[in-house]
């Protein structure tokens, strides 16, 4: 592995944010090119790599070799795998380790891993010396198509997910698609929910393509690369137009309000992965839209069918151990960050590719919907 | 106390930062006008007041009454007084309390207190839901003339002061000059170091005025109001030109590199208050400048004389318990956030009002200077 320039197979996108613009490179074995890519942009930078144990065991030596070859001194900081690392305690430890590694302005934090590591390391970078730059090297499908792009970083609060954090854009995203080969199938599938999301939001043609080609996307090769590129392009475009989520960017939360409530109800326990919660949440968002008369029930069914076909959960009875009473879900929804002055904000849809931000959803309507869903789950345990 | 509009005595300045511009109001009893001032700008906001126990006992009931009168619901969050509250543990507690108080976009965190509270509450506001707005109600001289203006917020790291934080501008600063009447004299004097600093940086006339009028500034009344206004204006101007400290803003660190090292050496123990450390650090910065041939020794003497006259420390032998070996100070200086690639950055001066950013100071020169200072302190114990 002695790549010293961008592998020719890599696709290059750009997130346009004036002074904060950055490249996204997508392609196989980009980890081996990380040293060259970073040295070209930031010669002489000191690096600190944050990775979870699982990813470190698989890829740390390779990225360290790439950095050594490019003469970039690098310190590694390891954390436990899993959502539990998005905590104040781990955040403090990573921040102190970054300071200990003498990361200062001009240096770089490298987030090597999935969304947990990107969120945690990005947030830590945003606060060290009031902000140092960071690079995303996403290694899960979810992080390659979603969390590594757009600058949302953060940790979880005792009150809910992602309630503590910063907007902090990376200076570069290196999505090594070959790294996905070691990803457990369940994790790949969970990430696929976010791929499908881009079709559901505003790209009906992409969703239709996925309906026919999803097996190739799962198998790897060009179809996977295409799907990741299309997803990143969609996210980059929305972020470029609305960095701080004052409007349109909220569309990316399709399925996430229900999804976060479900994750909270299952205690972030791994009973429901983030992407799985989003899949179920998207199915619910379309069923709720149908119930409100916004789209035909057949549209909700179509969405559910596709998600179910790839093996994602779409019904409450598929959540091992259940999600508890509706009141608990409602509390989580009200505490969720998309609440504005009592009225609930939801992403609803008029069709596949027809999502919109509804800022005035009545809590009672949500509650009635969730009660119907819960009754149905009780009537048909998995 | 039923003020409902800005008391006529209040001075109004503006910090110009495009979309992040804000007002600074300075005057007696502004705490009683806080409700009206905030309601005028943000009707219907929910408030969370962060205060330390000392300040809460003195002013919380009054500001709560002002908020109640303006129909602004407010939750109070109390922390222990002192630098120790700028810790990860207290930060976590405040962040969770703000989320618990359902502070969301459009709501406001109110920092009622000195620089510790402003830094802590401002940083907490910057990360709650990735950023909510905050108001500074500074109650110490130091916070009124310095820390409440400019958006630097943060906490301390195990490795040094203010190494963790965010740039987060307040949306309003209300400096109640009458609150200074309850401030212990030692705290007032410490804050005065930052007032003198503005003269030393680039306003020789202001420094000369202070030399003749400092007793009136300490006594209160118009001279004090004038000095606070001049200081805020100086800070606002520099911040307006260089919000992120990419250049000129570093001038505000006059005395702070030595000062931080001294605070660290004394363990942030209260043996040396921040402003006292800055006073001693400024005296050192001028002596170091004289040693380097940048200014006449008489200039350094003049600076020292004024600071000593008001009762501020200017020599190492005045630090109760001492500051330990030079190596400890050098470590702290190297770990300080103003280090760039090995060379040390210091604010030096060619004269009173003639400070400049020196980015290439040789560590050896600093060490030799500190050794001379230490020898002298040992020769003449206080
Ligand atoms: N910032 C954002 O915009 C945003 C968007 C969506 C989700 N998120 C966050 O992302 C997180 C979920 O991300 P995730 O699903 O990537 O989780 P993750 O980071 O926990 O990764 C999932 C699991 O896969 C393992 N893994 C990662 N890469 C691997 C590889 N190449 N081979 C083998 N194993 C590998 C990890 O060790 C982990 O156990 C959540 O915390 C969610 O809140 C953030
Ligand atoms: N953010 C910035 O730009 C900036 C600039 C300079 C200093 N700082 C920070 O500010 C802090 C020092 O600020 P400080 O000196 O205001 O310290 P502080 O907040 O600890 O206040 C000093 C003491 O005075 C008490 N007090 C406050 N107001 C009072 C009043 N009106 N009456 C009676 N007692 C009162 C407090 O309880 C405390 O014990 C340091 O942490 C320093 O790093 C920040």
Q: How much beta of chain A, percentage-wise? A: 15-25%
SSE class of chain A: alpha/beta
Total number of helices of chain A:
13
- Which residues of chain A sit in consecutive blocks of at least 5 with pLDDT less than 50? none
- Report the largest inter-chain contact: A-B, 34 and 34 residues
By CATH, the superfamily of the largest domain in chain A comes out as: Dehydroquinate synthase-like - alpha domain
Count of distinct structural domains of chain A: 2
List how many beta strands of chain A DSSP finds. 12
SSE run of chain A: EEHEHEHEHEHEEEHHHHHHHEEEH
Spatial ordering of strands, largest sheet of chain A: 1-2-9-6-5-3-4
Biggest beta sheet summary of chain A: 7 strands, mixed
Q: What do the pLDDT scores of chain A average to?
A: 93
**Oligomeric state of the chains present here:** homodimer
What share of the residues of chain A lie within helices?
40-55%
Enumerate the distinct ligands. Answer: nicotinamide-adenine-dinucleotide
- State the CATH class of the largest domain in chain A: Mainly Alpha
The CATH topology name of the largest domain in chain A reads Dehydroquinate synthase-like, alpha domain
Shape of chain A: globular
Cofactor (chains A, B): Zn(2+); Co(2+); NAD(+)
Organism (chains A, B): Blastochloris sulfoviridis
GO cellular component, one term (chains A, B): cytoplasm
GO molecular function, one term (chains A, B): metal ion binding
């Amino acid at each position: 592995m002695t790549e010293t320039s961008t592998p020719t197979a890599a696709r290059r996108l750009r997130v346009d944010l004036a002074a904060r613009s950055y490249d996204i490179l997508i392609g196989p074995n980009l980890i081996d090119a990380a040293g060259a890519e970073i040295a070209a942009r930031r010669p002489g930078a000191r690096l600190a790599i944050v990775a979870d144990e699982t990813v470190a065991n698989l890829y740390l030596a390779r990225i360290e070799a790439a950095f050594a070859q490019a003469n970039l001194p690098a310190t590694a900081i390891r954390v436990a795998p899993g959502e539990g690392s998005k905590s104040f305690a781990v955040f403090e430890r990573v921040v102190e380790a970054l300071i200990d590694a003498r990361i200062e302005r001009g240096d770089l934090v490298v987030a090597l891993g999935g969304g947990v590591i990107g969120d945690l390391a990005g947030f830590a970078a945003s606060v060290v010396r009031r902000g140092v730059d960071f690079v995303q090297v996403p290694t899960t499908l979810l992080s390659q198509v979603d969390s590594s792009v757009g600058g949302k970083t953060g940790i979880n609060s005792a009150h809910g997910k992602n309630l503590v954090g910063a907007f902090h854009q990376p200076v570069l995203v290196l999505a090594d698609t070959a790294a996905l080969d070691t990803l457990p199938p369940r994790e790949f599938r969970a990430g696929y929910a976010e791929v499908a999301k881009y079709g559901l939001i505003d790209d009906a043609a992409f969703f239709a393509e996925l309906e026919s080609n999803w097996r190739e996307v799962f198998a790897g090769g060009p179809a996977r690369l295409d799907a990741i590129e299309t997803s990143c392009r969609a996210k980059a475009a929305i972020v470029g137009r609305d960095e701080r989520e004052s409007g349109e960017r909220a569309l990316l939360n399709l399925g996430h309000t229900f999804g976060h409530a479900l994750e909270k109800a299952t205690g972030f326990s791994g009973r429901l992965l983030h992407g799985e919660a989003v899949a179920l949440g998207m199915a619910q968002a379309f069923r709720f839209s149908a119930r409100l008369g916004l789209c035909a029930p057949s549209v909700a069914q179509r969405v559910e069918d596709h998600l179910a076909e790839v093996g994602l959960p779409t019904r409450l009875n598929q959540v091992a151990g259940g999600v508890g009473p509706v009141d608990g879900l409602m509390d989580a929804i009200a505490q969720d960050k998309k609440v504005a002055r009592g009225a609930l904000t939801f992403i609803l849809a008029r069709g596949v590719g027809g999502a919109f931000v509804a800022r005035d959803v009545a809590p009672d309507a949500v509650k009635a919907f969730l009660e119907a869903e819960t009754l149905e789950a009780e009537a048909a345990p998995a």
